[in-house]
Design a protein that fits this description.
The chain is globular, with a radius of gyration of 22 Å. The N terminus is likely disordered. It starts with 18 loop residues before the first helix and ends with a helix. It is mainly α. Helix content is about 65%, strand content about 0%.
Length: about 450
């Protein structure tokens, strides 16, 4: 696996100063936090539900959301499957060759822009792509004699987490776009009044204006916060886990068996023709659906990702192996989601969502309060789609406008993911020597700035 963590060289410097291990000591993993949320929901519903009903919902409440859970998991897995490929690596290498590396500010800014633009398209493209591109830009700059503070570049790559949930692969918006009720657990297919089209979501002023503002300014904020004195900059070469070579080489993971050993099944599994034909058939189906007026939903996006993944990897078996490897991206949400669904089931059965929604509305700033609530809830729930599952019903019950409601929750969940950035960096690679206090300073500055812009736009529009 190209991005497998290697901790045999446990780093340089004091381990207590490493932000991934340090925060890992104090931040419980997602299953623990999911269990805590479920217990709190159980306690909150005690006055409204009988004990037998409570425990029945606790043990079976997730059944109704299985059709939501699996697509959310596949969104993580299939996205990573496409990006972690040799062909995508070659595209990243080309981009590294054209981006500027003449100064520290240029490298940080370029990495941040790539993270935000790519992240708006897809979470994996933004997070994984910016991580690798930023690393290689630092290496190019260092080879040319320019010292760049790598922790600031790594944080710039994590900026993708801020906007990915309000972009083309927003899990909350894609769920709500489904009028069939398969993934949109809040819609009645016969009525269909709890459905959001992706176009109004993407073009809403609170979404469109904020994304443009953040692409232009957030990387500059990190560039300003980075150490200005060269002596205070920690170069990429100081990290034991940072390799050399091209990104394509790092992401090249698959070697087919020797042709002389192939049997009939191997010829099918390794057939490039089958991969191309499968993609073409999928593309025709995808195109026909939209020509007939179909809308982009979570299930149709997953179908498109699967077809592109088969094409990108070239061989059916290469795609299958990478899907298996990419499941590591969903390990932190696969089991906890069952408990998130329990929280939803308990609060729904107790009729508490109406009260929570009314409390939001009573403030006079429903969407601003919703954003802050999602920001807090997201630190317990690392899956943005699951944040919407838990919080969204309250906004729907209050009769709040669906589009800004989605924007508020998705932005809050995205910014909270920035605070969980060490979790995602740990999945890609463990970074030693990054002072956790420095990361907190970067994250706090970005959170304050993003919150100010998002809340102002939500209130204005």
């Amino acid at each position: 696996m190209a991005t497998e963590t290697d901790t045999t060289d446990a780093g340089q410097g004091d381990a207590e100063e490493d932000f991934v291990p340090f925060l890992g000591q104090f931040f419980p993993e997602s299953l623990t936090l999911a269990a805590l949320l479920a217990v709190l929901a159980l306690l909150a519903t005690t006055p409204y539900l009988g004990v037998v009903e409570q425990f029945e919902l606790f043990s079976t409440g997730f059944f109704a959301l299985f059709t939501v859970q699996m697509p959310l998991i596949l969104l993580w897995v299939l996205s990573a499957t496409i990006v972690e490929s040799e062909r995508m690596g070659r595209a990243f290498d080309w981009l590294v060759g054209v981006l500027p590396t003449g100064s520290q500010g240029a490298v940080i800014y370029a990495t941040g822009v790539v993270a935000l633009v790519f992240g708006w398209i897809n979470w994996a493209l933004g997070l994984i792509g910016a991580f690798w591109i930023g690393r290689r830009l630092c290496q190019r700059a260092e080879a040319a004699g320019t010292r760049v503070h790598y922790p600031a570049v790594l944080t710039a790559a994590l900026l993708s987490l801020v906007v990915t949930n309000v972009g083309l692969s927003s899990p909350g918006a894609l769920m709500m776009a489904d009028s069939s009720g398969t993934t949109n657990f809040l819609v009645d297919p016969e009525v269909g009044d709890v459905v959001v089209n992706m176009v109004p979501f993407l073009t809403h002023p609170a979404t469109a204006i904020s994304v443009v503002v953040f692409v232009l300014t957030l990387p500059a904020l990190l560039a300003v916060l980075a150490p200005s004195a060269e002596a205070d900059r920690t170069p990429v070469s100081a990290f034991a886990d940072v390799g050399r070579g091209s990104i394509a080489e790092a992401l090249d993971y698959y070697s087919p068996p020797p042709r002389e050993d192939w049997v009939f099944a191997d010829r099918l599994e390794q057939s490039r023709a089958i991969a191309v034909v499968t993609f073409l058939l999928g593309a025709i189906s995808f195109g026909g659906y939209f020509l007939e007026g179909g809308r982009l939903t979570l299930l149709w996006l997953l179908f498109g990702l699967m077809m592109v993944g088969i094409l990108v990897h070239g061989r059916p078996m290469a795609f299958a192996e990478k899907v298996t490897d990419a499941t590591r991206w969903a390990n932190h949400v696969a089991i906890p989601f069952l408990l998130y669904a329990v929280v939803f089931a308990l609060l729904s059965a107790a009729g508490l969502y109406a009260g929570i929604g009314d409390a939001f509305a009573a403030t006079g700033f429903t969407q601003a309060v919703s954003y802050l609530a999602a920001l807090v809830l997201g630190t317990f729930v690392p899956s943005p789609g699951s944040v919407w599952v838990i919080q969204g019903p309250a906004l729907v019950a209050a009769g709040a406008d669906l589009v800004p409601s989605l924007v508020s929750v998705m932005y809050g969940a995205g910014v909270s993911n920035l605070w969980l950035g060490f979790l995602f960096v740990g999945i890609i690679t463990t970074v030693y020597g990054f002072d956790w206090r420095e990361y907190v300073r970067y994250a706090a500055a970005v959170t304050a700035y993003v919150s100010l812009v998002v809340i102002a736009l939500l209130i204005a529009f």
